[in-house]
Structures are given as structure tokens and as C-alpha cells.
Amino acid sequence: MNKKISLGLAISLIAIASAVTFILTSLFSLQSFNEKVVDVNEKAQKYSALQNLDSFVRENYYGNIDEKELSDGILKGYVSGLDDKYSRYLTEDEYSIEQSDNEGQLVGLGLTLTEDESGYIRIEEIMKDSPVAESKVKVGDIITIVNGVDVVSMGFSEAVEAMRGAEGTEIKLTIRRNGIDKDYTFTRRSIEVITVTGEMLSNYVGYIQITGFKKNTPEQFIDVLERLTSNGAKAFVFDVRDNGGGLVTALEECIDPLLPEGVIATAEYKDGHSETLVYSDETELDIPMVVLVNKNTASAAELFAASLRDFRNAALVGEQTYGKGVMQTTTKLEDGAVVLTIANYKTTLSDCYDKVGITPDYQIENDNPDADAQYDLAVETAVGLIE
Q: Which residues, listed in sequence order, are joined to residue 91 by a DSSP beta bridge?
């Protein structure tokens, strides 16, 4: 027999259900509101402290205040407060320089500089195809004056900074050699940075050095790889010592032709979800490989080494690597940009090496400054792997 309820009882049940729903919703909303109020109050306290500091400085600071530099300093300080050595705020100029660097382009004179014992600037390296390479300036020459200002009186860091500038602009330098000064005028220009070089060694071992992973690195890498492969390379030594990393997208393009098809590396984000970071297609170079690493091998360069060891059974030779297994993204803001750590990453076959580094299969240090024992052992290992 069907049981029925009266209209009055039905209305009462609906009313009770509505009341319960209202109470639960109110409790949730109140909790959410309280959390937001706490957050707002915390932010208000921070902004109030900053405002108080700003008022005090403006009333008492003896010098002049550059509002743009002050604003940049505040933003830099905020990101610095994260206590993450890889996150940082970039000014417009710094962002522009970083973008050019990621592209594999250098705007300037193409010089590597160090501070001379005299306080002046010593030229340590001159890049090929640079403005200075076309002059009679040589490695070891001393820069004494930059745009009419003595380097010692200006300070080394300030003088080097003064040598930077936009493409197409001129700079005047006084350069000393054997006590004789000579004036030069150079025009800054964009220079392609070479991050990949290679040569065929004896016993059919191809040697490829990668100094960084820039946007133009894959093209350079593929060119060298194909040249050495066509010349009969039966094994490869990849040298990523002193390679501080770079773009993961560039790394992916470099290792794609070396590894079997599949997901090579993944990234894990703050909310716990993972994404494919590096994927390789079915093209694979199936010959012995050795990777040279040292304490300055970091980030994408470490992922390069870990990927080749995990998926190609490559032997690692050298020193324990740096240990940077976190990823940053650069986001353009209204007046600058922020470089922020957003995830950690690892290959799909091994653990994340952040703050740990990667231990080589053959550990060896270069104790003799006149020899490269790491290189010699890597080549010897590669030769031994050739059938």
C-alpha cells in the first residue's frame, strides 16, 4: 500500500531543508569572509608599514629621490622577500637584456672583461664577428677610459655598466697596450651567441660542447650533430660543464633526436598537478654516449645529463652537479617583469635533483690546471663503448 504525506508535512520538511541549507551556506560564507578579512588586514599592515617608512624617508633623507629607481627597488625587495634565489624582479632594461640573452643574441661589443690589478678593465675574450674583433684590439689590452671618464675614478662595475647600450649606438674607449693609449670608437650591435661547438676526435668519437640552452641553440646543435654523424661518429661525448642551463624548450629540441619516443621529463606545480615538460618523438640516435658534467652544470644542463643517462644509458663523467631542479617563468608586467619559480621537474625515471645534484658514474676532478683529466676520461670511456 502506498504511503502518502500530507501537504502540511511536505511544506514543513521543505522549510527545514531550506533552513539547514541556509545555515550551512552562512557558516561557509562566514568562514570564507573571516579568512579574507585576515588576509586584508595582513595586507593593510604591510602597506601601512611601507607608507610609514616612505613618509619618514621623504621627510628626513638628505639626498634626492629618483622615483623610478625607488619604485623598482620596492618591487625588487618584494620578490627578494620570497627568499628564493632564482626568483627576481626585472626592470624594463633588465627584461630587454634577458630577452636578448634567451634569444641567443648579445647587444654590445662582444667582450669578456675582468678587473685588472691596476683598477682598469682587462679584455679577456673577444667574440668572433663582434665590433671589436674587426679592430686591432687584442686580448690582454686594458680599457682605461669609457666615454671620456677614467675607469678607476668611475669604478669597475660602473664602467662595465656604462659600456652597455642599445644597438646602433656609439661608444668611445681608450685602450692601453704596453703603456701606450689609443682611442677607438665602436658601434654596438647584435651578435649571435655561439653555444654549440664540436669536432671529430680520433677513434670516431664526436665531441660536442654546449655552453647554454638559448633559442638558437637547437639549430646550432643539430648542425654539429649531423656533421659529425655524417663524418662517421660512432660515439659522442657531450660536454655540459659550466653550463648553467637556459630554456627547457631549447633543451627538448636538442635531446629529441637522441632519445626514444615518449615522455622524458615532467614538471610538478604548486597545486600538485603534473605536466609533460620534455617529449621525444620516434627518431633516435642509437650509439654510445658520454656526458661531461661538473659542479657548475645546472638546471636544464642537468636535465640534459639525467635524460641521456636514464633513456640512452649514457655514462656521466666528472663532478657532482649543482642541483637546480626547479623551473622559472618570466612574466611581463606593466613596468618590468618578474622571474618566478613555479614548479620542480625531473625525468620520468629518476627523482628530482634539486638541492642534491647528480652523481656521475665516473667521478673525477681536474686537479692539474695544465690538463683536463675529466675530458680525457670521457673520451676514453666513449672509445671503450664503441663495439
A: 336
